Amino acid sequence: MTLPTRKIIHVDCDCFYAAVEVRDDTSLRGRPVAVGGDPHRRGVIATCNYPARHFGVHSAMASSQALRLCPDLIIVPPNFDKYRKVSAQIHEIFKRYTALIEPLSLDEAYLDVSQSEQFENSATRIAEAIRKEVRQNIGITVSAGVAPNKFLAKVASDWRKPDGLFVITPAQVDDFVAALPVKKISGVGRVTAEKMASLNLHTCGDLQGLSRLELAQTFGSFGERLYHLARGDDSRPVQTGRRRKSVSVERTYDKDQPTLKEWLRELDTLLEKLKERFAKLDENYLISGLTAKVKYQDFVSLSCDTAGTDLDRTHFEGLLEQLWERRPGPARLLGIGARLRDMKAPQQPDLFPEEWDKALRSQRGKL
């Protein structure tokens, strides 16, 4: 039985934080702008606009380095309360076209418009209408991708950034995917891409030449997912009730970090990024534990965790020190994260709900 073709839209705000700041301060228009931390306090860039990107500035870069690349860069401190309000306004626009909305973060979401009656069920016209409404009513631009599934819709939204719309019809899927670079596949990072290149695997068409077994033998558990994505197959539904159980960041280094001193130095950048990701979540999450991870030159990974309710640096220092004691040596990857308690999820009533509320407010205030 042939399944009905789905119509999925992926909407991604262009340089979201920076776009909101430029919208609210006309003196910033046309100038290189970034949202991020203080360059004198090891701050990190959260995002930047396209004039700043022209100089090589990008997210997760140290603010001090960004200023060296672009001396005229204006760094604005983040205002996540404002960004949440703008995000909520954008989601109200989404709701006019479908109830099937899966937020990925404050600035991007999947929409399933397969059953929408708007514009005679034309996903392309719905996407264009959303882009127009956001531009006129919110004052920023978004890019959108339209495709038969989530994987291709996300690829499409990035195809004509910024302020673009790209459509992949069912009839175009096979040819489009065959020519798609492997680096466009979610989960293919720098290390995996280098491994693929060494095997002369550059496009999804190249991956299609490998069997399920060969992909599993070469890429482990990721091989099964590669088999399907390389063929443009993605059956994942748009999940309207999607909630997170954790939030984390990690970085694979071009040059291994050989000593504990280097590990702790890298912690500043990782922690800023983790705080940014936590702040982008809605206010119904509470931190219930902390984790750290290291991967060594031989690809062996170790992790450890601890109880904790805030993203304090000292907690992560202790975790990295524990990992170093368990196995000292050069790290090719470092990561940190937090387990989350979802206050919206069904659960037993708290014995002391006012204490939980106080803890939640305290966590947010420390970011």
Structure report:
It is built from 14 helices and twelve strands. Helix 4 (80-95) crosses helix 5 (123-138), helix 10 (212-219) crosses helix 11 (222-229) and helix 12 (260-280) crosses helix 13. It has helices spanning 16-24, 50-53, 63-69, 80-95, 123-138, 150-157, 173-178, 190-198, 204-208, 212-219, 222-229, 260-280, 313-326, 353-365; strands at 8-13, 33-36, 45-48, 74-76, 101-105, 108-112, 142-147, 165-167, 246-257, 285-296, 301-306, 331-342. Helices cover 39% and strands 21% of the residues. Among the domains are: 16-80, MutS, DNA mismatch repair protein, domain I, CATH 3.40.1170; 173-230, 5' to 3' exonuclease, C-terminal subdomain (DNA polymerase, domain 1); 246-342, Dna Ligase, domain 1. The strands form three sheets. A five-stranded mixed sheet has the order 5-6-1-7-8. The chain has a four-stranded antiparallel sheet with strand order 9-12-10-11, with helices on one face. By secondary structure, it is an alpha+beta fold. The model is unreliable at 346-367 (pLDDT under 50).
Short description:
With 367 residues, this protein is α+β, with helices and mostly antiparallel strands.
